[in-house]
Amino acid sequence: MEKILTQHHDTAELWKLENYRAQGGYQVLENVLKTCQPDDIISIVRNAGLRGRGGAGFPTGVKWGFLPKDDRSRYLICNADESEPGTFKDRIFLENDPHQMLEGIIISCYAVRVNLAFIYMRGEFYLGAKRVQAAVDEAYAAGYLGKNILGSGLDLDVLVHRGAGAYICGEETGLIESLEGKRAYPRIKPPFPANIGVFGMPTVVNNAETLANIPHIVSRGAEWFNTIGPERNRGTRMFCVSGMVRQPGVYELPLGIPLRDIIFEYAGGLKDGRTLKAVIPGGGSARILTAEEAMQVDSDFDSLQRAGSMGGSGGIMVMDDTVCIVQSTYIIAEFFHDESCGQCSPCREGTGWMEKILHRIEMGEGRPGDIDLLLQMGTNIFGRTICPLGDASVWPVESAINKFRDEFAYHIREKHCLPGTVSIL
Questions:
Q1: By the 8 A CB rule, do 50 and 210 touch?
Q2: Is the whole model's pTM more than 0.85, yes or no?
Q3: Where are the beta strands (DSSP E) in 107-175?
Q4: Using H for helix, E for strand and C for coil, what is the string for 248-271?
Q5: Cα angle at 391 between 389 and 397, to 5 degrees?
Q6: Which one-letter DSSP state was computed for residue 168?
Q7: pLDDT of 19-66, one tens digit each?
């Protein structure tokens, strides 16, 4: 398979401008500014069917088209917060290939007529922040940023903003609040950021991997992009594979490739003697799949949704028969309780109660009725919060119980994990 986003990732010190340009970097930008109108770029991206790679999979060109046609200032934000459990794909661009992402940002800003863009980065990405800022500085020095870029009349400034380690800042309105210097409380929608975003102005928020696709789509065209992946799920994706596999890592593969191929062919499969038990296919907030389900589903957004889960952030977490489902569910619940911003009562209180109940079940102190109580609590949280974190906290618990209820019942009855599983607590 032809690599697109990672085709030059074996180049030494690719994060430096001279090495990026040696591989053809910024040539697409130069051609765009000479030969394309902004609306041409939007049309190409819309026809390509590029879906956002951050979680929801919303069509990028359609999102751009939501910006109102008025004379207000508008902004673009590159969402590189990447805090979803099991996800580490954007880090590849931030640390090893920031200019590809930056070229995508500049072309996108030209398309949607933006003069100020932000790169919002997860605070823990120290090396990534250092290299992204260095790339921005190099771009200014080379004339790719600043006033009258390459004589085109385009003015664009890009600012790098580091978060402070809050998961909720990956949600676009929480990110916007943080960027404005406030506590990252997600906003009620509508109004949507396309109309009232950062500083009250129209704003586009795109994921880092999404933006890295833009130079390739604009250069090679929508028809080329539509030859990769199934209908409505075009292009490649950076899949993050972790857990009980021989070769964990990030793999650029076409959307729609069978999930079993990602696990057993590219990630090397499981260790000798182990059998597949379950897979979380789209980051910690995705519903869990049984081994049988995982072996029958493809990796694109729509296939995973039909299977009852989601593609999410592309974080594939593989569990073999040594994994205790109760324990893994408790760990995820603990994460969401810790990361709840506390704005909405169902999420603030409910995530804590779910964590406590799962903890006592895992510790051998479960009570009859705890399983149904967890499901009831999920019902009281789901759909009753401003942002999707409440729903995201419910999906792993609800699906784990529905798929592995006997294991939860065993914990309560026998007061320990299933024989053969390994406790890490």
A1: yes
A2: yes
A3: 116-121, 157-162
A4: CEEEEEECCCEHHHHHHHHCCCCC
A5: 110
A6: G
A7: 999 999 999 999 999 999 999 999 999 999 999 999 889 999 999 999
